[in-house]
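Input.
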Amino acid sequence: MHEKTVRVRGELASVWQTLLNTLAANRYQIESQVLHTNVVAHMGSKVTSALSGTGEDGYRDLTVTMIPVGEEIEAQFRFSFPSWTPTMRSAKRSCDALVDDFARMTSVAPAAVTAASCADCGHPLREGSKFCDNCGTAVALPAVCAGCGAALRSGAKFCANCGQAV
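Output.
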């Protein structure tokens, strides 16, 4: 288990979207979420990770809890790793980098701005951009439901969380 907590400023909905963008950019698959409160995700494959014995890019579970604290939002990240993770130090560094990316992305834009930021350099992205105009990184935004903000599976016609048509 590896835990890290950061406090950020911003509108809860915007910070939540930044979290979802950060997870997608870091190859995490969302398993479930309670909008603006809690998200459970994982990265990698347990089978592939066990067979290859990798650590840094191996399998891990993640739970993120968002707690409003005055004008700030506390984001609690809890990573857990399988017992076979060979290089725990490397895996923890990778997790810390994800949390640092999230904190950096939330501090780039003012709270009133809900635009996404580049996962690589943190530069605010223009609406509809396919590439960051600051560093050229391809934009990898997850598909989310317009009604509830839940992550959508590829090819979904309806939101699995609220039933709204996509």
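The chain has a mean pLDDT of 76.
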